[in-house]
């Protein structure tokens, strides 16, 4: 079994005063506190979520 490619995503923006859908996207990525990092499998779905909120997250490692 081949190892899946992963990316590390860090939350850099606050969800305060953001639309409900942007908050839900952060929670969907597993982020809920500032500077929290998550290692996620690099899929089109995850990339789409990151592209929806580029002002709130940063991709650290690919």
UniProtKB/TrEMBL annotation:
- Gene3D superfamilies in UniProt: Ribosomal protein L30, ferredoxin-like fold domain
UniProt keyword annotations, A-Z: Ribonucleoprotein, Ribosomal protein
CDD domains (alphabetical): Ribosomal_L30
MF-aspect GO terms:
structural constituent of ribosome
Q: Which InterPro entries match?
A: Ribo_uL30_ferredoxin-like_sf, Ribosomal_uL30_bac-type, Ribosomal_uL30_ferredoxin-like
- In its UniProt record, which GO terms are filed under biological process? translation
Outline the extent of the Large ribosomal subunit protein uL30-like ferredoxin-like fold domain.
8-57
User: Which chain regions cross the lipid bilayer?
Assistant: none
Provide the assembly information: Part of the 50S ribosomal subunit.
Family to which the UniProt record says this protein belongs:
Belongs to the universal ribosomal protein uL30 family.
- What NCBIfam families does this protein's entry cite? rpmD_bact
Name of the protein described by the UniProt record: Large ribosomal subunit protein uL30
| Species whose genome carries this gene | Devosia chinhatensis
Lineage of origin: Bacteria, Pseudomonadati, Pseudomonadota, Alphaproteobacteria, Hyphomicrobiales
């Amino acid at each position: 079994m081949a190892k899946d490619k992963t990316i590390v995503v860090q939350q850099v923006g606050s969800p305060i005063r953001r639309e409900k859908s942007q908050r839900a996207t952060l929670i969907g990525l597993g982020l809920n506190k500032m500077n929290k990092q998550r290692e996620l499998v690099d899929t089109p779905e995850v990339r789409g979520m990151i592209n929806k909120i580029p002002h709130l997250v940063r991709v650290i490692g690919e």
